[in-house]
Amino acid sequence: MKGVGDGNGRNGTHDYDRSFTIGAHVETQVNAPSHTMKVYRNDKLVRTMPIDAGSPNRPSWDGTTAVIDKERAVRMTSCSVGIAATRTAPTTMI
């Protein structure tokens, strides 16, 4: 950081060494027309699973999304998008 400006006219006066570890690269690719989802960990396919990709009257959003989060479990429900869950349409845990 020595000599690096902070944007307010001040410069760093010391250099620092820091080590850190980051987690695995996890990527999920969804193919709505084929109703499939593929999960990759460090560029290796670890799972392919069927998905519900909406319907003509309730289509799924389409496009690229970056999701950066760290959770042990995430409960995804139809309620989160305004569709009530019932026994015939249960929630999904991923």
Q: N-to-C terminal Cα separation, in Å?
A: 41 Å
User: What's the shape?
Assistant: elongated
* Count of helix runs: 0
User: How many domains make up the 3D coordinates?
Assistant: 1
Beta strand count: 7
How does the major sheet shape up? 3 strands, antiparallel
Rounded radius of gyration (Å): 21 Å
Secondary-structure content class: mainly beta
State which percent range the strand residues make up: 25-35%
List the helices and strands and how they pair.
Elements: E1 26-31, E2 36-41, E3 44-50, E4 54-55, E5 58-59, E6 75-76, E7 92-93
Protein architecture, described:
This protein has one domain (26-93). The mean pLDDT is 79. By secondary structure, the protein is an all-beta fold. It has no helices and 7 strands. The strands form 3 sheets. A 3-stranded antiparallel β-sheet has the order 1-2-3, with no helix packed on it. Helix content is 0%, strand content 29%.
Q: What keyword list fits this structure?
A:
three-stranded antiparallel beta sheet; 94 residues; 7 strands; single chain; mainly beta
Short précis:
The chain has no helices and 7 strands. With 94 residues, it is mostly beta strands.
